[in-house]
Fold this sequence. Notes:
The longest helix is centred in the first third of the chain and has 27 residues. It contains seven helices and no strands. It is mostly helical.
Amino acid sequence: MSFSEKIASIMARPGQDPAAKDDVAWWLKYAGRGLGTVGSFIAIFLGVWNCVSVLLGHIGCLVSGMWQMVAGFLVIVCEAPCCCLFVDFVQNLSEWVDKRPYWNRAVAYVVLAIPAIILCPSMSSIFGSGLIFTTGVLYGMMALGRKATAEEMVASATTDSVNSPPPNPLGPAKQTQRSTLVDNAQPMSFTGLPHFDSNV
Length: 200
C-alpha cells in the first residue's frame, strides 16, 4: 500500500460506515468519535502526570498512569487512526473495530477505564479515565439504538398484551401493560400498644 493510498483510505473513513449498522443519530456518532479522540489525548497527558507522582512514592499511581496511557493509545488507535499514521497495523485494527457492533466498543472502553481509577483514585486518573469511560457510555447509548416515536410508545402502552402473565392468586389479572401497584395495595393497620412491658 503506497503512502497516497493510505492517506486516501484514512480520509475516506470518518464519515462513512462500511455497512449501515443502524439508525444512530449523526451527532451521536461524531460525539463518540470526538470525545474518544480528544479524551484519549487528555488521558495520555494525565497518565504521564500520574507517572511523575512516583517521585512522591506513590507506586500505584505509576502503574495507574502507565495503564491510562496505554488505554488512551488504544482508544486513539480505534477512534482516530490518522493520529497514528506511521504505525503499520493501526489502519487494519481500526477497520476491524469499526466492523464490530457498538456494544463491543462500549464494553472495551468501560473496562479499559476502570483499573486506572482503582489503582490511583486521584483527580488526574478520574478525569482522564473518566473521559474514556464516558466514550464507552456514548457507544453503549448507540448500541441501545434510537428511542421509539411517541405514537409507538402510546400504542404499546394502550394495547392489550397478547401474552398475558399467569393469573395472580391475590386477584384477577389485568390484560393491559399499565401498573396495578395501587390496585393491589393493602391497607396499613396499627396493632396498638403491647399488652405488657418486658422492662428490658
